[in-house]
Amino acid sequence: MLAETDLDAIEPMFEKQGWELPFSLKYAIGARIDKGENLTADWLLSWFICHPETNLRTPATRCRDEFVALFRMRFDRRFPDGLKVTKPRKSLTASYRAASSEFQGSASPTVDGKPVPDISGLRKPVEIAQELADEVMNDLDKLSRFLGRNPDGRGSVEAHALLPSELWDAFPSEEMDHLKSWASDIVDRGGLVPLEEVIGRLEGETNEKIGKRQMTGAADALARLGFGLAPDPRFALRSPKAEEPVVLFRLGEPIERLEEVSDSYRSALIELALGSFVAHADGRIAEPERRALENQVSAAALSDQERRRLRANLEWFLAVPPDMALLRRKLKEVGQDNQAAMRAALVGAAHADGIIHSDEVASIEKVYKALGLDPALAYSDLHAGEVADGPRTVRASQPGRPGEAIPELEKASGPKLDASRIAAIRSDTERVSSVLGQIFDVEEEERGASGPASQSQLAGLDPKHGALVLELLTREHWSETEFETICASQGLMASGALEVVNEWAFETHDEALLDEYDGYDVSLEIAEAVKEKMSAEGRDV
Questions:
Q1: pTM to 2 decimal places
Q2: CA 364 to chain CA mean position, Å
Q3: Separation between Cα atoms, residue 317 and residue 276, nearest integer Å
Q4: 3-state secondary structure of 401
């Protein structure tokens, strides 16, 4: 018989010990169940972490302290009296077998003179723990991604702002009060502030180029404090340059998931963007145009928070006019089908109130002319399928005296739109966003989007970087010289390519693809995941 162990001497463990539940853990939990005690958060978490079949994702390991703290909070909220576990019938047995197989034995541990229940076969408590852990890991995902991209960022303002608000008291930050005060002052002064100043406040430094990932992190961090950032790169047709202003505004309350918006908001934002685009067509915005856009915001069927966000985006649209020369060049590059989609989106915005005004026709004509399209298309596009463009027959024609023939009306050049196509494109928010994103995305133009026309084999990467990643996956390690050589073969700079592929890896696999160590080590987990996905799709790496 095994000697009884003092239960209080056994503490929960939060590191997986092997491929089986540790015997001491089974004893401690089983004895508590036998005594009729409800399990605390720490014992359930210890059971979960040490269980061989449970799954811990990167947020739980990269943000270990935050994960444990938040798991305890969520457990206590759901089980304020602890978790009641049904006592299993099987008793715990300790077995031993010598390496030589000449000696083996077993014993049954006891508590208060009674056998200890064996928890090894219980499933329900582990499933409950997995549910709680998944919820916690999802809420720590943004913080985990930030720390993955910025290993030294723990303790920074942005890292703290990305914590679930429940953890703010447990992980205090004096800098948060300074950030709130700064953001409040900016809003009180009108809300406009250079993007580089926002990023500098959050990250402590800024670069000449600020990517969508940084802007998204900034928007998420500010939202946790109750402040919004417009434009939000998740929905914007283009991202502002570092020196351009963005708009800070009050959201009304802290928000942890800015990406969750209604379809009505997405549609209203697109129509507002197009409306402001039309207003900017002649290089100035008249007061009636401004009022019409403001009325568009007021009339949208949105929640108070979404209306605040829409109004802030209007302020940004009015403050930062689009580059018409750039848009004209890009519109020529996207092809005739997407040009037609652009026209349909503009017409859809004009049809938003169900009435076509004469000034709307003039505005669309200005846009068409500014974009190098035939202005004569505007009238027929606006009335496609809705108003007969030809004259009505009042009475049958009679031959008259011979005279000068009336010339045929000049027809606009270019493919015609019909009502069904306009309606379809306008209702397909994703389609409109995609088409307009190609045209308005200044960032892509600045990156030199004149690369190969072929599509990348890896979603989220352009063809050059996609080809680079596939080449990198063929080996586990590359020297610095070798890496520079294969980057050059794709026409890429090594430093920039390293940043792009690791950003992609963090976004899609939650870890870096390349680890700098006497050259570059390739993540075996990502390599395997990419190969499996491509194999499942019938493609070879």
A1: 0.58
A2: 33
A3: 6
A4: coil
- Beta carbons within 10 angstroms of residue 153's beta carbon: 19
Identity (one letter) of the amino acid at 346? Answer: L
- Residue 335 tokens, joined: 């092809």
Write out 41-63 in H/E/C secondary structure.
HHHHHHHHHHCCCCCCCHHHHHC
For position 403, what pLDDT does the model report?
Answer: 58
Terminal-residue alpha carbon distance, the chain:
58
Neighbours of 411 (CB within 10 A): 11
Report d(CA 154, CA 160) in Å as an integer. 8
Query: Consecutive sets of 10 residues in the chain, 541 residues long: mean pLDDT of each?
Result: 61 80 88 91 93 86 93 96 90 65 63 82 91 93 83 80 86 83 94 93 77 83 91 82 93 87 84 77 76 88 93 92 64 61 65 60 71 73 50 50 56 49 50 55 45 57 86 88 86 80 81 80 86 71 52
In the prediction, which pLDDT does 447 show?
Answer: 43
pLDDT at 355: 60
Residue written as tokens 């799709």?
537
pLDDT of residue 185: 95
pLDDT of residue 394: 44
Cα–Cα distance list, 315 to 49, 134, 303 (Å): 49, 39, 19
The whole-angstrom separation of Cα 121 and Cα 111 is 20
pLDDT number for residue 393? 44
The two structure tokens encoding residue 445: 């133009």
What is d(CA 249, CA 229) in angstroms, rounded to the nearest whole number? Answer: 7
What backbone phi and psi angles, to 5 degrees, belong to 99? Answer: -60, -30
SS3 assignment for 279-325 = HCCCCCCCHHHHHHHHHHHHHCCCCHHHHHHHHHHHHHHHHCCCCHH
CB atoms under 10 Å from CB of 143, counted, come to 26
Residue 104, SS3 per DSSP: strand
Q: What is the pLDDT of residue 4?
A: 53
Count the neighbouring beta carbons within 10 Å of the beta carbon of residue 205. 7
Distance between CA atoms of 516 and 221, rounded to whole angstroms? 29
Strand 520-522 to 477-478 pairing: antiparallel
| Positive or negative torsion for Cα 382, 387, 388, 392 | negative
* C-alpha 210 chain-centroid distance: 16
User: Quick one: pLDDT at residue 43?
Assistant: 94
DSSP 3-state assignment of 70?
Answer: helix
Q: Is 513 helix (H, G, I), strand (E, B) or coil?
A: coil
Question: What residues does 105 pair with on adjacent strands?
Answer: 96
Q: What is the DSSP string of 360-390?
A: HHHHHHHHHHHTTS-TTHHHHHHTTTTS--S
Residue indicated by tokens 């018409």: 324
For residue 285, the model assigns a pLDDT of 78
**Sequence letter at residue 417:** L
